[in-house]
Amino acid sequence: MSSDLMTIAICWELGEKVSVEYANSNSTLYYFCPEPECLERVAPVQGKINIFFRALNRHVTGCRHEKETTESSGAPGKPKKFTTAVPPTTVPTHLGIIPVSSRKTDPDPTQLLRLSQQVRTSPVTHPGTFQEVVDAWQTMSTGERNQHQLTIANQTSSYANAFTSLIHTGGGNLSAVNNSSIAWGPASVKLYGGSFFIKTFNKLNDGINRARIRIIVRPGQAYFSQLTHGTNINLFLHTTPTINNKGDYFEIPPSTPYSGFIIK
Ligand SMILES: [Zn+2]
Fold this sequence. Notes:
By secondary structure, the protein is α+β, with helices and mostly antiparallel strands. The chain has 6 helices and 18 strands. It binds zinc ion.
């Protein structure tokens, strides 16, 4: 039996192993224990510190997830030992929200067993924000970037292929900056009129205009307190720039958790 929190289950509708963070954002779906001898239905619950999976009834005797279920549903006042463990950081497999096409009918035990065997060695489906995806990429070795899958806008490639360096785009084609991949490159930071102006080193070309990408960070906005005049930063972009009215800079739409810009 394990003393780890249960943070991975199988999602029937998705047909994949999923992280508990995914399940917590999609709590109406059908999740079950991946252990072939168990396959008990589970649901995400919020503990004192972490979110984890708990069996709706109980895991079968001998299931590696049996113990924490018993302890975390223990008597009132009893310390919930396993709710304080911090699960390992899961590498995002998707940037953004994963669409679930349709609600399937509830599975029978044979279907659950078949699915658990199919996904035994598959990666854990874990949607990440733009920040989480960039953080994961940054900590990976070149080998790991080739090895880990990343799905953006329904297209699956590796972390290595999903990230494009603006320095290496040759003619500086603006199409490298888009909503189906992540572009990154150096940019300068200048303070002007109380706001920071971030500009890419390279000019980019959209077929008509040739200009740098510019982001203005005003007081109170994200990153403002971390920027310093006269420094260079790495800028990560997952967005669609458009030329401004004067035609001298490409500007980007406001960021969301899943798009926009990240500064490193
Ligand atoms: Zn189980």
